Each structure stands twice: as C-alpha cells, then as structure tokens.
Amino acid sequence: MKTLVIVAHPNLERSKVNKTWLNRLQQEEDVTVHNLYAHYPTFEIDAEKEQQLLLENDRIVLQFPFYWYSSPALLKQWQDVVLTYGFAYGSKGTRLQGKEFMLAISSGGPAEAYQAGGYNHYSMSELTRPFQATANLCGMHFLPSFLLQGMMTLTEERLQESAETLAAYVTNPNLRAGS
Amino acid sequence: MKTLVIITHPNLDQSRINRAWMEELQKHEEITLHTLYQAYPDGKINVEHEQSLLASHDRIILQFPFYWYSTPPLLKQWQDEVLSYGWAYGEGGDKLHGKELGLAISTFGPQDSYQSTGYNHFTMETLTTPLQQTSNLIGTQFMPLFVLNGVMHISDTELAENAKGYVDYVLQPSLMEA
After folding, report:
1. Spatial CA neighbour of A171 closest among A104, A125, A113
2. For position A177, what pLDDT does the model report?
3. Per-residue pLDDT reduced to its tens digit, A12-44
4. Structural domains of chain A in order of their starting residue, each with its CATH number
5. CA B27: distance to chain centroid?
6. Does B134 touch chain A (CB under 8 A)?
7. CATH topology of domain B3-170
8. Nearest to B122 among A43, A76, A133 (CB)
9. Residue ranges per structural domain of chain B
C-alpha cells in the first residue's frame, strides 16, 4: 500500500505538531510526504502533477492544523484545482475510486470542547463533513480521522507519542470499517 | 442596520448566479458590496481594511458558490487572516459581538442531493457547520441560510425572481425584531 501525505501548514517552521508529524512520516518507506505550502508559495498549483501523485498512491492523507474548523486556504485551493470533473468526479471521473482518504488534524482546542455542551459545540466528525462528502463524491473510502487536540496541555512526550501513533496509523492497511 | 455583502467568486464576470445576485444587490445603494477576488487579485488581503469594513457594519453576508462543500479558497484565507485573536475572538476579541452573520450559497447539486438519501449525503446546514461554529466563536448571530441549489436548472425568469428574494433576505429586519 502506498500512502501520500499532503501536509498543508502555512508556517511549518514555526509549527510544533505538523512539523514533528512531517519529519516522522518522512522516515516511512511507503509514505510520500508532500509539503503543499513549500511547493506552491504563490498558490499556483500544478494540477497535472498533483493528479499524478494521487494516481500513484492508494491512500491519501490530508494533514493540517484546524483553522476555523476547516483546512488552511491552500488545501482548499488544492481541492478546487486538482479534484476536477472528469478526473475525480462525474460520470467519467473515476480515477480516485476505491482509494482511501483520511484526515490528520491538529487542533488548538481540546477534545472536550468538540462536543455538544463544549465551547466548540460540535464534534470533529460533524465539522469535517465537507471532507467526508468530498471523499464520498470521488468514490474514496473515508477513514476515521487521526486527531491531536489541546495545544495548551501538550507535552513534548505526548507530541512524540502522537507522531509514532500517526506513523503506525497511516501505514496500517486495515483501517476500513469491518476490516 | 448597515449591511455588508462580501462576494467571493474567482470568476465573477463569467458566473451566472453570483453575478445576477450581485447585480440585483447593486440596485440598493444602502447595501455595501465587497468583491473579494477583485479586491485582492494577488491574494494579499489588507487585514486592517477588512476589519474596519466589518466593524462599520451590523450585518455581514458571505455570498459564494459552494466549492467542495465549502467556500472558495480566498474566503477561507480571509477568515484565517481577518478574524484574528484579540480582535474577533479570544481575550479582547469582541469586535464582532452582536453583529449578524448570514450565508448566501449557490450550489450545482440539486436540493434533493443534500440529504441523507441524496448523493451528497448531508444537508446544507450540516455542511456549513464550520461557518456556523465560526459565528458562535466570534459572537455573531447566525442567520438562516439563503441557498440556491441546482443552478444548472434555473431559468432566467426564475433566477430574476430568486435574486429579488435574495435582496429580501439581505434586507430582512434585524433577527432581534423578527
């Protein structure tokens, strides 16, 4: 199984979680790590190259910090420019069907905030429906998200642990429901 | 009530729905129109200017086409840069408290696709939860959605009527009074 991890962080050098995750994932043999902001600082995405990358991999992971309950803008641009009609969706847009799709998200707010009664009111599952719907339309299997939440209480130990767990998760071939 | 409509469409000139909506809004002088891609063709948003625009209005409508169940990228960037800590949220971040926030969205998919048994699986309300929660955090009052689904199938006559309905939505009385 070949995995593509698209990392979208506008200030990766100053990030803690996403940088640690990227560095750890780069060590994995069957994982291709693709730093989106580094490749496209002016937002001019090479759609063909991106589509080729998608075709060459079985599992697509979008890794990003949660900005206003969604992804950073460049990743949104990536979706709009790369997942085209006739490639990713539409009657002839079957190139991504059967692949797996997953989110790896870091959020400042703690897990307890992301539920009814918490200050973010909604669960991560609810807030990531746009990504789930995207995977659905492209015929991809939406896998459970990998989350690291609560930056205020994040210790170095917990961060390193999460990187290990993420690496194991991302390369685990048996993530589909019922598998 | 001073109303600001922020229109975010990367190809507004060639768009049908968003341009029709904008042209109808233009007939009403009291509505402030702000087209984001035109204002920032290079993507370099003037945060101070945007914050000043928001501060001077009571109601903000975000108008955009639904791209992958979300906003066009520039509007996401706008959120990330303009709704800053200490201004829109967090300590001292109360500058938008009490204002009203509405969404006006055009979608390709028809209405019946946006339900659990439809091909988009989820409703518009569900899919716009990120923006609804954004509204919660910045302390604005979230208005009911204004949505036009199935844009390929609307006739010119229906669109003209719909655009007038859009103006009614934009100019509706304050949520507090309703």
Report:
1. A104
2. 76
3. 999 999 999 999 999 999 999 999 999 999 999
4. 3-170 (3.40.50.360)
5. 18
6. yes
7. Rossmann fold (3.40.50)
8. A133
9. 3-170
Indicate if the alpha-carbon torsion angle B12, B13, B15, B17 is positive or negative.
positive
Per-residue pLDDT tens over the stretch B91-134: 999 999 999 999 999 999 999 999 999 999 999 999 999 999 99
What does the alpha-carbon distance between residue B53 and residue B59 come to, in Å, rounded to a whole number? 11
Q: Would you tell me how many other CB atoms lie within 10 Å of the CB of residue A32?
A: 15
> Cβ(B147)–Cβ(B124) under 8 Å?
yes
* pTM exceeding 0.90: yes
What number of residues does chain A have? 179
**Residue indicated by tokens 């609804």:** B132
A69 touches chain B (CB under 8 A): yes
CB B166, CB B104: distance < 8 Å: yes
8 Å CB contact between B92 and B86: yes
Does the ipTM exceed 0.90?
yes
CB proximity A84 to B under 8 Å: no
What is the overall mean pLDDT for chain B? 97
Q: List the single residue in A70, A136, A137 with the smallest CB-CB distance to B130.
A: A70
